Amino acid sequence: KAGVTQTPRYLIKTRGQQVTLSCSPISGHRSVSWYQQTPGQGLQFLFEYFSETQRNKGNFPGRFSGRQFSNSRSEMNVSTLELGDSALYLCASSSDHFTDTQYFGPGTRLTVL
Amino acid sequence: KQEVTQIPAALSVPEGENLVLNCSFTDSAIYNLQWFRQDPGKGLTSLLLIQSSQREQTSGRLNASLDKSSGRSTLYIAASQPGDSATYLCAGTGNTPLVFGKGTRLSVIA
Hints:
The structure holds two protein chains of two kinds.
Chain A lengths: L4 E3 L2 E4 L5 E6 L6 E8 L3 E9 L2 E5 L6 E5 L5 E5 L8 E8 L8 E2 L3 E5 L1
Parallel strand pairs in A: 2-11
Antiparallel strand pairs in A: 1-3, 3-8, 4-5, 4-9, 5-6, 7-8, 9-10, 9-11
Chain B lengths: L3 E4 L2 E5 L4 E7 L6 E7 L5 E8 L4 E4 L2 E6 L4 E6 L8 E8 L5 E2 L3 E6 L1
Parallel strand pairs in B: 2-11
Antiparallel strand pairs in B: 1-3, 3-8, 4-5, 4-9, 6-7, 7-8, 9-10, 9-11
């Protein structure tokens, strides 16, 4: 079974731009969660989607948004990029609920200049 | 609000040693606890998941325990190898998705 895939793997943007990251979960998994990882804050939860609906949301500004498609693939968007948005963005999928085992993708490394 | 702490932040051991990594959490209403491994610049690999009704899980040389009453989990690694060098993260789930600790960076010296 293929694992979680994320595209692109690396991105360089400038302040003020917007970016869209993509995540394809493991086949059959319906829950997709997004996390931001930085050296200072560690791993922080952004949001979780299940059956195309946002089920949980972390404490991030509205510039961070996401969506999920009917095939469970998910995208997250960051608008008006700031330098502090530079991070590794990780996507995780689980079968039905975030309490199930979470399987992570390799991440997208975003650098904001 | 759940908070997860991992001590020590870094650990260096010679090859072959048995070692224990510690994880503590503040909210005993934890549903399960998951241990992950992260290699530099990479995503997370799930190692073990312990349901709140369980006390421990084992996989190969790894054994993880969960004590909800004391708010602690430990990851025991037997006969450590250089390939075990990585950052180990624990994360708890309650009413909200995973809350992560900052991790323990493990170096196993050959």
